[in-house]
Amino acid sequence: MKTFWQHYGLRGIILFCAVLVGMPLVMMIGSVVATSPQDDEVWAHILAHALGDYMVTTLALAAGVGSLSAVMGVACAWLVSMYRFWGSSFFKVALLLPMAMPAYIVAFVYTDMLDHGGRVATWLNDSTGADAGAEVWFDVRTLPMAILVMALTLYPYVFALVRASLVEQSFCVWQAGRTLGCGAWRNFWLVGLPLLRPALVVAVVIVIMETLNDFGVVSAFSLPTLTSGIYHAWLNMNSLSVAVRLALLLLVLVLLILLVERWARGNRRYHAPSGSHRQMVAEHLKGARAVVSFCFCASLVVFGFVLPFVVLLWLAAHNQHQAFAEGFVGYGLNSLALSGSAAMGAVALGFMLAWAARPPSGWLFRSLMRLASIGYAIPGAVLAIALLLWLSAVDKAQNAGLSWLGWQGAHFLWVGSWAALVYGYVVRFLALPYGAVDSALSRVTPSMEHAARTLGASAWNVMRRIHLPMMRPSLMTAGLLVFVDSMKELPLTLLLRPFDSDTLSTWVWHYARDEAFAVSAPGALLIVCVGLLPVVWLSSMISGSTAKKSGWLTNKQTALRDTNAYAPA
Amino acid sequence: MKNRLLFCVLAVMLVLPACDSVSQREPDSLVLYTTRQPFLLQGLIDAFTAEHGITVEVVYAKSGLLERLKIEGELTPADVVYMADYGELVLMAEAGLLKPVPEADSPWLASLPSRYRPDNMWFAVTKRVRAIFVHSKRTQGQNVAGYQDMTQPSLRGRVCMRSGLHPYNVGLLAAMTWHRGEAWTRTWLQAIKESLARRPQGNDRSQARAIYEGVCDVTIMNSYYLGKMLTSAEQDQRNWADALRMIIPEEDGGAYVSLSGTGMTRWTKKEEQARAFMAFLLSDEAQRWFMQTNIEYPIDATIELTGLLASWGRFAELPLDFVAVARLRPRMARLVDELRFDR
Question: Is B199 close to A139, i.e. CB distance below 8 A?
């Protein structure tokens, strides 16, 4: 017999989460309807003079980063999985490292080095004896450079997913290809690529979504994208409403991409033909081929990770005193506490949500649950504006209520509080733990639960003693991911943080904008080091070919599948 | 056991941020919202507290204070605002977020010319010029006395600028438009665009660096940056500054100045203390502090210039209507877009 709690409590949880995630979006759409004539004037101006540039740059950036990282990721995944050459097993781990580098940090390192009068130019001038001014240097702040920088930090998504998919394939497939007369290249084009297609498409979609979300790189390169347009409309033109319209446009773009992904997937099925799974036997490369393969993989690792990391280390070592004087430790603690809270909150909420949704429920609740993971598809800047609108409405209602009750004490405002920022992170990253728990729960067979219940355990006991222990690895991975992603997060943090305080990411960003990146280098270094944790974790998972089953990759994929449900069919 | 400890640590982490937000303030203290930087303000605030026995809690922000005051409404804890750029003060006054200071209660107001205190809603504290900087050697023999001279054909391909959409540049364009009309400004900006050595990028300091590196020979920067670079701890920055010559454009009646300014919030319950703080910002002591620490011009013309400012000397200033200039800003931001200045 079902208790009252089972009937309504669980649905209450789902409803609560849906309100938490959904209300900001509702407010956002509402604010576009209510606009002033000034807003319309600004909008007309943006339409006439800026929107074209925003769209062209945004699309070019997304297409460029998507295709470049696809080429990089597939090529190196293919090389290290199918062949053996000097360093190939090292590259299996090392090629993932750039994932730990937030793109904006790499962007600052490269602009600092390559700019007019940057370290490289200065060194060249000194070593060639040319006097300052005689040396001509290329313009580093261009769209192609931005594409290169972002692709260097985002290709690991492609590498990881494609490699996991390659490891899963049976060796028989390649053998069959070779027996039928395919050379290495033909085997790649005719057999490999079609088989890798699902993993590749998902990875590229993730890369493009990360690109659209970016604000740090485009502002370092002063590129006119939709995200920079949002700030321009808000802070230069004093029109929050126009900023919201641009934000909605960005959201539409994301949904369109998800739609394309779904269309590309179609109804294809990729099944292994037989039950026999033979481990891959990697071919030994020699001579020029080995050298080329090594150089290709090495250049990705060097330019994506080693070089920026060494520069950061060097800068940090030279500027540690000033960094400590600037309150570096305080910002670090802020970041740790915030990301820790976000990870806890997101995991707790994601777990409750997925667990509460376990019994088959109606379409309404299923779609409410999917809503929970839409945050991942919303760019940070967009979500920040939506949250600002929603929280200020809550503040007003709350204070109206308090003064109606005659309460004149200290007022608490949600806007600009740490709690609001944690709320923002949870909404943005809820999809990660939700997806992890959802897929982990699907492996708990109903008979286990039934057996426990028959033996007299309450529903609560079943959760505590059966579900939780079985899901612990997935929960830990998801928590770690939310932790690292929150640490790196920039656009949402910039807009929602308490104004008198900084986190590591905003501190790094402010100094970098002031052409004094060196001062905040220790902060950047700390962000990178924390980011290394999940990378190491991930690499061990892929090699064990368990990535698909326990956590990380499934998280991002499930997040995608669920947000996908919102793409208009 | 280990798990429990971990759980406790995590639980504390979850609760900490929330506690921080509701931490109580001292009842007597003054709350200041500012876009100025800590290094510039903290010493002054300590001096103020020592003199008047009023503690000041400061919220340092980079942007968004206007939005925040609007959202907080009558619940705002802020008593005083001190903005690095007067533009936001004009918007605050228009949005009804500020309260005028009655002249009768504040004798210190009389010393300030009335255009520095529109309707007594806000008050200028310091001023600066958006000056022209040229490479001291490579532009010898070239006559660059004003903004118009920057567009001469011999300087084509030799001009650097930061983004046209930065508030400093938007403010300059607004002053130009107020003074010479929008048509003149549009022509000027177009001519500058055609003279650019590279796409507008970086901040004020990176323009100096570009001149030092030979990318270009002419740029526009705020006057105090020269002082800050000359006195910088970094050799690089001193090198950049040494390559520069500053020209304060006084053509056609004087230079365009920009202001930092302060005001009292509409909802403050500590009017008296707020007035004391604003009076302190205009005192000789504070004015000298700004002159020394940030190389900004004091608003009080009777104060003797010292240090670098003394060596640069006084200049003729165009009597701008600051409120009217600030209202032109959104239009100027649009002009920058229309001419595709940053592209």
Answer: yes
